[in-house]
Amino acid sequence: MDTNKNISEIFYKCGFSDSKINSVFAEIAKSRAEENKYNNYFEKNWGSAFLASECFYVIIFRITSTFLKYADSVSENTKKEKANTLTALSQIQNRAAQQYLEILTLIKNGFPDGAFARWRSMYELSVIGSFIMKYGEDVAEQFIEASVSQDRYDWAMASNAFPENKRHVTFGDILKLCDIDFEAWKDDYTAANQTVHASPQGTFGRLGTPDGESSTSQRSTYGIAAPAIQSANTLALISTMLFSILPDEDTVNYMSLATKWLNELNELYCITHDKLFPDDNK
């Protein structure tokens, strides 16, 4: 099947002239050439860092598989006491791991703002996971049951941490009560919110735009490190929550190795960024 021919027929149907059709195809060819140029640039300059991120995902995936096999071997009585928490956290960690791969795909293609916006969801998952871990089985059960409703955060009322007459629980309410150190993440979370929403800050001060440069709609070679580092740190945090539900020596030892890898990953991204952008002010 000649796909280009079919597309041309659609152009004709919409009333485009031959010259306009040819100009669109020419622009697409130019865009694909630019994409190849960016891919070569990223592989040359960020290749080792990207590989470190991919390795970290595989390490976490294997630890998770080991942990879940161990969890299956634990007695039913032991698991019964933590069944809802285990189910909730395993799904939260699973979702965070998928988002980590989404973020890696975005930064490998020059879209750091999109990656940082996606990290916002990962961070919020860590907050929800922390809240569930803090308040236990009843909260975890309500979280699970809320998955088939329109309830976003009112499941958290099961914690008995809010006044009985409170109409609705917000994410901010949960954030204040979880055990995540918000101050340590505050600046990045604020920036991620600006990136997600139609804010002037997220519009004029994009992550993929160095200081003093105009924003563009094209791929960016700048701003790669932040979402890569934060997504890896967040995946490690959420995974640690999951693994702590049913502590296992093999999982603890493997996670210790993963933490060392994470430190090397963070340093590698920082070194690469500083090498490529020695005059960076951000």
Structural features, described:
The chain is mainly α and 282 residues long. The chain has one domain. It is 73% helix and 0% strand. The chain contains eleven helices and no strands. It is globular. The mean pLDDT is 90.
Topology:
Layout: H1 3-14, H2 18-73, H3 76-80, H4 83-108, H5 112-135, H6 137-145, H7 171-177, H8 182-196, H9 200-204, H10 225-243, H11 249-276
Helix pairs in contact: 2-4, 2-10, 2-11, 4-5, 4-6, 4-10, 5-7, 5-8, 5-10, 10-11
Please name the defining characteristics of this protein.
282 residues, mainly alpha
Total helical segments? 11
Which regions have little confidence, pLDDT < 50, spanning 5+ residues?
none
Task: Report Rg.
Answer: 23 Å
Structural domain count: 1
